[in-house]
Design a protein that fits this description.
Elements (H helix, E strand, L loop, with lengths): L2 H6 L5 E2 L3 E10 L2 E8 L4 E8 L7 H19 L9 E7 L4 E7 L4 E2 H8 L4 H20 L2 E2 L8 E5 L5 E5 L6 E2 L8 E2 L18 H4 L6 H17 L15 H4 L5 H10 L11 H24 L48 E2 L6 E2 L1 H8 L7 H8 L3 E4 L2 E5 L12 E5 L2 E4 L5 H11 L26 H15 L4 E2 L2 H8 L16 E8 L11 E9 L14 E3 L8 E2 L2 E3 L7
Parallel strand pairs: 20-23
Antiparallel strand pairs: 1-2, 2-3, 3-4, 4-6, 5-6, 7-9, 8-11, 9-10, 11-12, 13-14, 15-18, 16-17, 18-24, 19-24, 20-21, 21-22
Helix pairs in contact: 4-6, 4-9, 6-8, 8-9
Keywords: ATP-binding, Kinase, Nucleotide-binding, Transferase
Protein name: SUMF1/EgtB/PvdO family nonheme iron enzyme
InterPro entries: CTDL_fold, Kinase-like_dom_sf, Prot_kinase_dom, Protein_kinase_ATP_BS, Ser/Thr_kinase_AS, SUMF_dom, SUMF_sf
């Protein structure tokens, strides 16, 4: 940088007649960052001057400036709340050093927060990482790979409501995917290997080795930052040389499931990582949903003393590593050595537990053979058996529960029909086979083990359960739906349940048809049509626990205890 350019970068100088340099915010080998004021707009921005290689040849300088201008225009088009937006660009002095102008963010960097806190709380780390993923996914879809993700390049902005917004910045060495027939380019001159742009300790193996990069290079860095936030430090040995120590071995409050997510993201081979930032975000969201379910179960069954009595959970005051509830002794898993569903004997097979009956076509359907598809055959063999409940005036809700379940109120429940048991694996398997709908993960394949056919199907989302009801209605010509929330609670309060079982079995939870509403006279939260309610209890000692508690979740939520039963209105469907 010559003397003329250096003078242009003194505090108080005005760049391009627009930006007054007010303060130096930081500097490094790649450039300097200033806080500036736009003279006409009276607004504060951040301005970064690039100090990388300067070509001495005038033609080469012009070529580089043209390339920078083109790429800066692409960066300026990235519009996402989690990315610091580029608002302007230009060049300074005789050397034509390029600069970019960005939003000015009041806050601290993620590096500052980690340095202050050491190991950050799990919920904070997950929230920040999800936001980073959201922003990077937008950049990736526009063909932009950041290549220098690190805590210093993530700003934490505190919003007026006290929440934290993660803002990714410094796309100064971002790599642009090639346009049709073109070459990929960067905002810096690129050399292969450890001398290439980026921060070595956050580089993915392919970046260090000078191999081709793509969005999965950024995914490696995102997972490494998540690891650092939780562990309080980067792995002691570079990931390219050895597998990092699992986070759950460093912190007792981290579930092993998160080890699996981070471990996949830190794979040495890009093809073994999450395929996109959006996929990583979704994996973390699914992980959080499981943690939310555990918290919901604990909170909904916490007596006034404040100590949970829910089996499988530690008291709130002494909880360590969260463990999700399991179906009875554990999740349903495929039996080893079974290469398909064993044939079921011709004729009726009486299954003592649960009273379910299966016809031969279940076996042929699951085994891939020809199946009878008539509405009559399906109704006779695979339609859940319904019983009629008379309905009537009843008391619902409670005056002693959490805010979702109060207050107690009087209402009238209309007559309805409901299945005696939860929908079984065998019944759901016919739906999966005929519609090619996705099978529950616990099956380990497209059909359940033969030994589990009569057991309730679990691990299904509300969306899955609703799709089953629609399919069953179409196949039988009758109209089926999920049990309504008020119907479920009305039934749970009855002494005579007409043979309906599993309703308050601590091994199971079940979806209802309804979204989250506020009871008459309730307060402290708002209705949310995007959340669906499931019901059940988790206290095996007190049979009355769980009658009033409500569990809201997104309709794509699944859990290995969560199933469903079907219902219908008497005049349009049923037995």
């Amino acid at each position: 940088m010559n003397v003329e350019t250096a003078n242009l970068l003194e505090l108080g100088a005005v760049i391009d007649g627009k930006y007054r340099l007010d303060a130096l915010l930081g500097q490094g080998g790649m450039g300097k960052v200033f806080r500036v004021t736009h003279i006409q707009l009276k607004k504060t921005f951040a301005l970064k001057v690039m100090l990388f290689d300067v070509a001495r040849d005038a033609d080469e300088r012009q070529n580089r400036l043209a390339r920078f201008r083109r790429e800066a225009e692409v960066l300026a088009r990235i519009s996402h709340p989690n990315i610091v937006m580029v608002t302007d660009f230009g060049a300074i002095g005789e050397e034509q050093l390029p600069y970019i102008v960005m939003e000015f963010i009041e806050g601290e960097t993620l590096r500052d927060r980690c340095r202050e806190s050491g190991q950050v709380p799990l919920d904070f780390a997950l929230e920040v990482t999800r936001q980073i993923c959201a922003g990077l996914h937008t950049a990736h879809t526009q063909g932009i790979v950041h290549r220098d993700l690190k805590p210093e390049n993530v700003m934490l902005q505190t919003l007026p409501d006290g929440s934290i917004m993660a803002r990714v910045l410094d796309f100064g060495i971002a790599k642009l995917a090639p346009e049709a027939g073109g070459k990929s380019e960067t905002l810096t001159r690129e050399s292969p290997g450890i001398g290439s742009p980026g921060t070595p300790k956050y580089m993915a193996p392919e970046q260090i080795l000078g191999q081709p990069i793509d969005p999965r290079t950024d995914i490696f860095a995102i997972n490494l930052m998540l690891y650092e936030m939780l562990a309080g430090a980067l792995p002691s040995v570079p990931v390219i040389l050895a597998e990092p120590k699992p986070i759950s071995k460093i912190r007792s409050d981290i579930p092993v499931a998160l080890d699996e997510i981070i471990g996949r993201g830190l794979s040495k081979l890009p093809e073994q990582r999450q395929s996109s930032a959006l996929d990583l975000k979704r994996e973390l969201e699914a992980f959080e949903r499981n943690l939310t379910l555990e918290a919901a179960l604990r909170d909904r069954t916490t007596p006034p003393s404040g100590v949970s009595t829910t089996p499988g959970f530690s008291p709130v005051t002494g909880m360590t590593s969260p463990v999700l509830p399991t179906l009875q002794s554990g999740p349903i898993t495929p039996s080893s050595g079974i290469g398909g569903v064993l044939p079921i004997a011709v004729g009726l097979i009486a299954v003592a537990a649960g009273g379910w009956f299966f016809y031969p076509q279940i076996s042929t359907a699951l085994g891939g053979g020809a199946s009878r598809t008539s509405a009559t055959a399906l109704s006779a063999a695979l339609t859940p058996k319904l019983v009629l409940l008379p309905g009537g005036e009843t008391i619902l809700g409670t005056n002693r529960g959490d805010k979702l379940s109060v207050p107690e109120f009087k209402t009238t429940v209309l007559p309805f029909r409901v299945s005696q048991t939860l929908v079984t694996n065998g019944q759901y398997a016919e739906f999966v086979k005929r519609t090619k709908h996705r099978a529950p993960a616990a099956w380990g394949g497209s059909s359940p083990p033969a030994s589990d056919l009569d057991k309730p199907v679990t691990g299904v989302s509300w969306d899955d359960a609703d799709a089953y009801c629609q399919w069953l209605s179409k196949e039988t010509g009758l109209r089926y739906r999920l049990i309504k929330e008020f119907e479920w609670e009305y039934l749970a309060r009855q002494r005579d349940r007409k043979g309906v079982v599993d309703l308050l079995d601590a091994g199971f939870l079940e979806w209802t048809a309804d979204s989250l509403t506020v009871y008459p006279g309730g307060k402290g939260f708002t209705a949310n049509p995007e959340l669906r309610i499931f019901r059940g209890r988790d206290d095996r000692e007190n049979p009355n626990e769980g009658v009033t508690f409500r569990f809201p979740q997104k309709p794509d939520f699944t859990n290995n205890r969560l199933g469903f039963r079907v219902a219908s209105d008497p005049k349009v469907g049923g037995e």
